[in-house]
Amino acid sequence: MTRTAPPARVRRVVVQAAQFGLVGAAGLLVDLVVFNALRLTVLSPDAVETGPLLAKVLSTILAIITNWLGNRYWTFSRERQSNTVREGVEFFAVSLAGMAIGLACLWVSHYVLGFTSVLADNIAANVIGLGLGAVFRFTLYRLWVFSPSRKASVRQPATAGARQNAAVAVPSEPA
């Protein structure tokens, strides 16, 4: 039985999803370290009632910065926009909405259901919330922020051969 290769588009989505996952893993590491460092020290619920929520906001903002850099320059490098400010604003808007998903999971677990341990906070925010937020973010990054249909060409240096071919392709004016 002969196996046919998946279409290039499917392969590209799989590669992007894997790259997104690796970038997300780096962001998760930043998020976990900062969240737990703050949650266990200056933003402990014993010291600040809303400490876990504040810790999650700060850790997520640092993770968003990490993820934007990784996604812009690696995962979606072919699709990145030439208008960096617009792309950054859109990326942060989607990321903040994803953060809201994680915060909502943490809030329900900690304040509604009463699961207040460090483990419960981590499961709510960094397993359930992060998983739901990741699906949301990947979808909107791919379809909106880094959409190939919105791609404005990012200037790539032309090779000598490309410049020579472009010069040959220009029609000359009649004499």
How far from one another are the termini?
63 Å
Helix and strand succession? HHHHH
**Tally of alpha and pi helices:** 5
Roughly what percent helix?
Answer: over 70%
The total domain count is 1
Task: Note the main attributes of this structure.
175 residues; elongated; mainly alpha; 5 helices; single chain
Topology, element by element:
Elements: H1 8-39, H2 51-75, H3 84-112, H4 118-145, H5 160-169
Give a written overview of the molecule.
This protein is mostly helical and 175 residues long. Helix content is 71%, strand content 0%. 28% of the residues are buried.
Q: Summed up, what is this model?
A:
The chain has helices spanning 8-39, 51-75, 84-112, 118-145, 160-169.
